[in-house]
Structure formats: structure tokens, C-alpha cells
Structure of DNA-binding transcriptional MerR regulator:
Amino acid sequence: MRVAELSRTTGVPVPTIKYYLREGLLPAGELTSPNQASYDERHVRRLRLVRALLEVGRLPIATIREVLRDIDDDSDWGMHERLGRTLYPLAGVPDDPPGPELAAAMAEVDALIARWGWQVEPHSPGRRRLAEVMLTFRELGVGHLMNAIDRYAEAAEIIAESDLRGITTDRAPDDVVTGAVIGTIVGDALQAALRRLAHEHTSVRLFTP
Amino acid sequence: MRVAELSRTTGVPVPTIKYYLREGLLPAGELTSPNQASYDERHVRRLRLVRALLEVGRLPIATIREVLRDIDDDSDWGMHERLGRTLYPLAGVPDDPPGPELAAAMAEVDALIARWGWQVEPHSPGRRRLAEVMLTFRELGVGHLMNAIDRYAEAAEIIAESDLRGITTDRAPDDVVTGAVIGTIVGDALQAALRRLAHEHTSVRLFTP
């Protein structure tokens, strides 16, 4: 298909597509003449992924390039390694060593992980991300809200099981990883929306006569 | 306390505090001389809340003003009404009527709400927010990920019950509502971080020999 059709199919304007091509977020089409290129289904899927990463995930262009490179890496990784390599950079966790306060919070995260028997790599960005959230609660004077963390962990197990079971039914490997990236990012928004509806219902149950 | 001590206590720089005062996000201190004002614990709590809304919730200033006005409204509302009035604007859902595609997705949300027996107001912003997430999944070509929505709803019930039970142990009404606002916003980040850790663990279980 020509770029105009690619635009119609995906709803992404032509100038935006050209911007993605310049930034290396979308592979070049196949040249059919010196001034014309042809695009295929692979470009449609890639465009959708880039939109999810930019608009829903609000990731910086450099991170998106890294994620796309990992998706396209066709080394002989198993699915677990492949998901890890692709999803770790999504967390946007910095490389610098944590300060003493953050390190203490990370030790609490380690205790939680041990309590739940979770197998998580020492360098998993989720550890640091969770520790940062803990510190935010405390800085905001509502550290007691962290008392509920085991209920949150229970809910996370239910969702993770469902998310990962869903993955196995997919097909082509880059499609699987693309689905995992989109599911990770948009799944956060899904969870947040449902939590608000459940809050309202629970508030009716607990706080109305 | 003087503004310098308010800054030291909360970690918010003095020029930022003055900006919040000008924008009406922080009530004026009590004047102790024509050029000096005194601040108290109420200002400390309010500053923490404003930081959570701005930095974690990334809410626009106008929305924050609306949320603060609702928190300060000491009309004789019950807790359920008070939480609803304060938390509804947080969703940032527009007032304009939904188009046909969004309206269809909202009907699917209604079906989910009925299936779970949730009591949710017809004008609850959570309905529209969830419908928008559904459309995003479809536009991104991964509508099948919505098959897992009932597992997400199950997890949301567990978390909502825990969140709302936590609320009842709090004290002063504006403190309760402040805690609910912070918990709603920072709780999303908590859930997202734990989901990633649980993903990693589940991936080890399902995808490694």
C-alpha cells in the first residue's frame, strides 16, 4: 500500500508517519520508484505499537527506539528472556545507584517479594519502581496506605496470571511481544478505570445506609 | 511557622510555595505583620496533597482547584457523597456527549457493571474512562486482550475493598478525603509496579523449563 492508504488504515496522519520514518520508529517501505515506497501489514502493526507507546505510555522517543530494537531482535531467545529484554526498558527506571532512603525501601520490596515467593531478577526495574512508590506515599504523609500492599499483591497475581495466559494463544513472535508491550501499558489504564468503578460500588456498600 | 520552615518541613521550595499561594492552591497564612504570614499543619497537609495531584496525578491546575474546593466544602454530606464529589473530577472525563463508537463501548461497560452487580451512578466518569480504554485496545489491534476483563474486575474488587476499609480508620473528614485522593492517584502507580513484578514471576512459571 502507498503511504496515503497506510494513513487511512491506521488513522495516523501522513506527516506524522513521515516523522516516525525520519526518527527510525517505522522501517522504510519498499521503494517502487525513486519517489514512492510501498508499505505492508508489518508497517500497520508497527504504527499501532508506536502510537500506544507514545500516546498511552508517554514514553520518550529514545526509549521507544530501544523497545522496538528489542522486539526486532530475532536472536534465539526463549519467550521469558524475550519479554524481559523488551519490557524492562519500558519501566524507565534510571541506572544510577539508589540513595540510602531508596535502598532501604528496596529492601522492603525484597521482603515483600520473598513473602509472596515471587521469582524476580535482582536487576528487575519493578523493584526500584515499587520502592519509589513507597517513598512517595510516605513523603505525602500517608505511609499507612502501604499497609494494604498484600491485597494489591494478591490482585497483581490474578491479573498477571490472566495477562500471561493470554499471551500464549498468540502467534508470530514479534506479534506476541507487541501484544505484551501494548497490554502492559494500556493494561495499567484498564486497571485504573476498573478500580474507580469498584471504589464507587464499595463506597455505596460501606458508607450508605 | 514561617514560610521558610514550611518549605523545610515539606521539601517544597519557597518560590514554589509562593506560586501555589498566587494560584489559589494553598490558602493564605495568617498575617503576623504587613509582610509576614504564619503557616500551620493545615498548610503542610495541603502542600503534600497539591504535590501529589501535580506530580503523580499530573492534573491541570484548574482541576486541582476544583478538587480542593470540594475537599474544603464542609456541607453536611455523608462520606459516600463527599468522596464522589471530590473524586469524580479527578477522572478528567470531558462533558461533551460521546460519539456513536464510544456510546457503544459504554453500553459494554454497563453490561460488565451489571454482570458484577456493581452499584455505579449513570454519570460516573469511570464508565466513560473504561469505555475509552476499550476503544484504545481495539484501535491498537489487540481487542482480544479485553477477554481478560473479568479477571481485572475481580482484582479491582479486592483492591477497592482494601482501599475503602483503610479509609474508615482515619480521622478528621478533610484528612479522610485527602487520603482518598492521594490513595486513588498513587494507588494506580502502586498497582502498576506490582503488576510488573507479578508479570516477571508468572513469566518464569509459565515460560521457563
Chain A has a mean pLDDT of 88.
